[in-house]
Automatic annotation (TrEMBL):
GO terms for biological process: DNA damage response. GO terms for cellular component: plasma membrane. It comes from the Bacteria. InterPro entries: YiaA-like (IPR038972), YiaAB (IPR008024). This is Putative membrane protein YiaA. Keywords: Membrane, Transmembrane, Transmembrane helix. It comes from Chitinophaga niastensis. Residues 3-56, 67-119 form the YiaAB two helix domain. The keyword Membrane applies. Pfam families: YiaAB. The chain crosses the membrane at residues 5-23, 35-54, 66-86, 98-114.
C-alpha cells in the first residue's frame, strides 16, 4: 500500500509541479507553455503505453510490433523534444533542471501507477495467467 501511495504522490507531484511552473513562468510565451504542456501529456501517455506493451509481452499477451515500436519511439521522442526545447529556451539553468526533473518524476510516477493498477487488478481476479500463458488459481 505504501508503494502505491508513493507512486501516486510521485505522478501528482511531478504533474502539478510542472504545470505550476508553467503557470508561473512569466517570461514564457503562451505557445511555449503549450509546447511544454503537450510534451508532458504526450510523455505520460507514451510511458504508460511502453509499460503496458512490455508487460503484455512478458505475460504472453499479443502486442503488435508496430504498436510496440510506436510506444518506444513516442517515449524517446518526448524526451528528445523536451531536451531540444529546454536547450533552446531562454530560461535559467535552474528552471531548465526543474522542468526536466518534474517531467522525469511524472513519467516515473505514471509507469508505477500503471504497474500498481495492473498488479492490483490481477490480484483481485480469481485466476491469474502466468508467463507461460497458463491460468492458475491465486
Amino acid at each position: 500500500m505504501a508503494f502505491i501511495a508513493a507512486s501516486w504522490v510521485a505522478v501528482l507531484a511531478g504533474i502539478l509541479g510542472f504545470i505550476i511552473g508553467l503557470w508561473n513562468a512569466s517570461t514564457m510565451q503562451l505557445n511555449e507553455k503549450g509546447y511544454y504542456f503537450t510534451i508532458l501529456m504526450y510523455g505520460l501517455f507514451a510511458a504508460v503505453s511502453v509499460q503496458k506493451c512490455v508487460r503484455d509481452r512478458l505475460e504472453g499477451v499479443p502486442v503488435t510490433d508496430i504498436y510496440y515500436g510506436l510506444a518506444w519511439v513516442s517515449m524517446l521522442l518526448t524526451i528528445l523534444l523536451l531536451t531540444i526545447g529546454l536547450w533552446n529556451a531562454t530560461l535559467a539553468p535552474s528552471e531548465k533542471g526543474f522542468y526536466a526533473f518534474a517531467f522525469l518524476l511524472s513519467v516515473f510516477g505514471a509507469i508505477t501507477v500503471q504497474k500498481n493498477t495492473r498488479d492490483t487488478q490481477a490480484a483481485k481476479s480469481p485466476t491469474a495467467t502466468n508467463r507461460d500463458g497458463i491460468n492458475s488459481e491465486l
